[in-house]
Design a protein that fits this description.
Number of strands: 13
Helix content: 40-55%
Oligomer: single chain
CATH topology of the largest domain: Rossmann fold
CATH class of the largest domain: Alpha Beta
Largest sheet: 7 strands, mixed
Distance between the termini: 20 Å
CATH architecture of the largest domain: 3-Layer(aba) Sandwich
Shape: globular
Number of domains: 2
Radius of gyration: 24 Å
Strand order of the largest sheet: 3-2-1-4-5-6-13
C-alpha cells in the first residue's frame, strides 16, 4: 500500500508522536513535515527518520529549515500575486500578538506574510501531503497561512476544536464551517420526538451546572485562574534572582551572562522588538523589562475599568450582553474572521440598539493579566472612553457572574466563547460574530454583516427568536455524539472533567482522527 504523506502543524505535545505512529501503522499516514518546540525534535526525528522538523518559534519568525534552504531559494510562488485580501488582513492582525510597542512597520508585516505564503506553497508543492493535521485552530500566521494555502490547493485539513464543555473536544476540517460530523448528527437528530433519545449523558453534569447553579464558576474560568496563578509564580523574579545569582561567586557571573543571551525557548521569545528584524530573538533581560512594562499598563487599566464598571447591573433594563474576548488571541483571530475589531463592533452595535435598550459590556478576565501570559497589553483606556460616549453602553465589572447577566438578558453576543453555550442553555437568543460550533444551531443569529446585525436586533426587539429546551438538548446531544472525552493540548488538563489517563487520551485522539478521516472528508 502506498504511504500517504502527512504534515503535523504546531503539534507540540509529545503524545502526538504516539498518535502519528498509530496513524502510520493503521492508516499508512506517514509524517514528512512537523512543526513543534525544540524539545520535541530529537524524539520526532528518531521515530520518523528523514522527516523535516521546524521549531515553532523559528517557524513564526520566518526561518527555513537548513535542509530546504537551497531548494526554497529557487522557488517563487504564483500565489503571492493573488490579492488574498481576507488572508492578508487576518494575518496582519495576527501579528499584533508579537507587536510590542508598535514595533511592526507596515512593510515588515507585508514581507512576513509574503514569506509565509511563499513557504506554504513551496512546502506543499514539494511534499504534496494527503492531509495536514493542526493541533488546534491555527493562529500563529505561519500555520494559519498554511491552512489557507491548503484550502486553495484542496489539501485535506484536520483541526481539533473545543466544545466549551470541560474535558470534551471534537474534530473539524474547516475553521469557517466547524464539524461535518456535528452537522450530520444534528440533521439526523432534528427528526427525534422521543425525549429519551436526546437525553444528555457526558454533557449532563455541565448542562445542569449552567442551567441551575448560576453562581458557580465555569471550568474554563477556573482554568484561566489556575494558569494565571502558575504564571504569577514563574514571575516572582526577586527570590529566584537571589537564589540563582548569589549562591556563590562563580555561578553569579555565569548566570549574569545568561541574562543577555537570546531567548528562543519560551513563548515570550515571540516578541518583535522595535527597530529589530523579526528574525532576531529578544534577550532574557529585555523580555523581563517588557513584561514589567506591560504589567504596569495592565494594573492601571484594571483600576480604570473597575472605576467605570457597575458591580451590580440593573436587571429591570432591556439589555443585550456583549462579552469581550481576550485579544489578540485565537478566539478573535482567526475565529472572528474580519470582525476582529471588537471595539468598533461594539460601538456600531450600540448605535443599532432599540430606543431605551442597553448594551451591557463585560471585559474578559484575562485582559487584566496579559503580562503573566507573555502578552503586550493590547487594550487601552482610549478603547473604553470611545465606548463610554454611547450613553446606552454600561460596563459590567469583570468579577460579576456572567450567568446572572445571561439569564436576565434579551440576547447575548459572543464570537466563540462559553457565553454562547450558556446563552442557548438559558434559552436566550445568541448573536454570533465569530465562527463557532454554536453557529450550527438553527436559532443562532449570525451577525457577520451590517444587514444581518440589523435584522437580528429587530427580531430580538420583536421577541421573535424563541426556542425550547428540547431544541437546545437536541443540538447539544448532536455535539455530544460528535465529541470525545480527550485533551488535544495539555493546557486543558487544568480543567476539572478530564477523567482519562495518558494512554486513553492517545486512543481517543487517534480514534477521532480515523473516524473523521474515514467518514467525513
Amino acid at each position: 500500500m502506498v504511504k500517504k504523506k502527512v504534515f503535523y502543524a504546531g503539534c507540540k505535545e509529545f503524545f502526538y508522536i504516539d498518535i502519528a505512529k498509530k496513524l502510520l501503522k493503521e492508516k499508512n499516514l506517514e509524517p514528512v513535515y512537523w512543526t513543534a518546540n525544540i524539545k520535541h525534535k530529537e524524539k520526532i526525528v528518531k521515530e520518523f527518520p528523514g522527516i523535516v522538523f521546524l521549531d515553532n518559534f523559528y517557524a513564526v519568525r520566518g526561518y527555513v529549515p537548513e535542509i530546504l534552504k537551497k531548494e526554497y531559494n529557487l522557488f517563487k510562488s504564483s500565489l503571492i500575486d493573488l490579492k488574498l485580501l481576507k488572508l492578508r488582513k487576518i494575518s496582519s492582525y495576527m501579528l499584533e500578538r508579537f507587536n510590542w510597542n508598535n514595533s511592526f512597520e507596515k512593510k515588515e508585516r507585508s514581507d512576513v506574510i509574503d514569506f509565509h505564503i511563499n513557504f506554504a506553497d513551496f512546502i506543499t508543492e514539494k511534499y504534496k501531503p494527503e492531509i495536514v493535521i493542526f493541533q488546534e485552530v491555527p493562529h500563529f500566521v505561519y500555520d494559519y497561512i498554511l491552512y489557507e494555502i491548503c484550502k486553495i490547493k484542496k489539501i485535506k485539513t484536520l483541526i481539533f476544536g473545543f466544545t466549551n464543555i470541560s474535558g470534551f473536544a471534537y474534530v473539524m476540517n474547516n475553521i469557517w464551517h466547524t464539524s461535518k460530523k456535528l452537522n450530520y448528527n444534528y440533521k439526523k437528530n432534528l427528526n427525534l420526538s422521543d425525549k429519551e433519545n436526546f437525553k444528555l449523558v457526558s454533557f449532563n453534569k455541565e448542562y445542569l451546572r449552567i442551567k441551575n447553579k448560576v453562581e458557580t464558576e465555569p471550568p474554563s474560568e477556573l482554568w484561566i485562574k489556575k494558569k494565571i496563578e502558575q504564571n504569577i509564580s514563574t514571575l516572582q523574579i526577586l527570590p529566584k534572582l537571589k537564589k540563582i545569582f548569589f549562591s556563590n561567586f562563580k555561578t553569579t557571573f555565569e548566570n549574569l551572562g545568561k541574562l543577555f543571551k537570546k531567548n528562543s525557548l519560551t513563548n515570550a521569545s515571540n516578541m518583535k522588538l522595535k527597530n529589530k528584524s523579526f528574525k532576531e530573538f529578544p534577550s532574557y533581560i529585555k523580555i523581563f523589562f517588557n513584561i514589567k512594562k506591560s504589567e504596569k499598563k495592565t494594573l492601571r487599566l484594571k483600576k480604570y475599568y473597575n472605576e467605570i464598571s457597575n458591580k451590580v447591573p440593573n436587571f429591570k433594563n432591556n439589555y443585550i450582553n456583549f462579552f469581550i474576548h481576550y485579544e489578540p488571541e485565537r478566539t478573535i483571530s482567526p475565529q472572528a474572521g474580519l470582525l476582529y475589531d471588537q471595539i468598533s463592533l461594539i460601538d456600531y452595535i450600540s448605535k443599532q440598539m432599540p430606543k431605551g435598550w442597553y448594551l451591557y459590556v463585560k471585559e474578559h478576565p484575562k485582559t487584566f493579566s496579559t503580562h503573566h501570559l507573555m502578552r503586550n497589553q493590547y487594550r487601552s483606556k482610549l478603547d473604553y472612553d470611545k465606548l463610554l460616549k454611547n450613553k446606552n453602553i454600561i460596563f459590567i465589572n469583570q468579577n460579576y457572574p456572567s450567568l446572572n447577566l445571561i439569564k436576565n438578558s434579551k440576547a447575548n453576543i459572543t464570537g466563540s466563547g462559553s457565553a454562547g453555550l450558556e446563552s442557548i442553555i438559558h434559552l436566550k437568543p445568541l448573536m454570533s460574530f465569530g465562527y463557532s460550533w454554536t453557529n450550527q444551531f438553527n436559532y443562532t443569529l449570525n451577525i457577520r454583516t451590517k444587514n444581518k446585525l440589523k435584522k437580528a436586533i429587530k427580531l430580538i426587539e420583536q421577541n421573535k427568536v424563541n426556542f425550547t429546551e428540547k431544541d437546545t438538548l437536541i443540538f447539544l446531544k448532536s455535539l455530544e455524539q460528535s465529541s470525545y472525552n480527550m485533551y488535544y493540548t495539555s493546557g486543558l488538563l487544568y480543567e476539572l472533567n478530564v477523567s482519562l489517563d495518558h494512554k486513553q487520551n492517545i486512543e481517543q485522539l487517534t480514534n477521532s482522527i480515523i473516524d473523521y478521516y474515514d467518514n467525513y472528508f
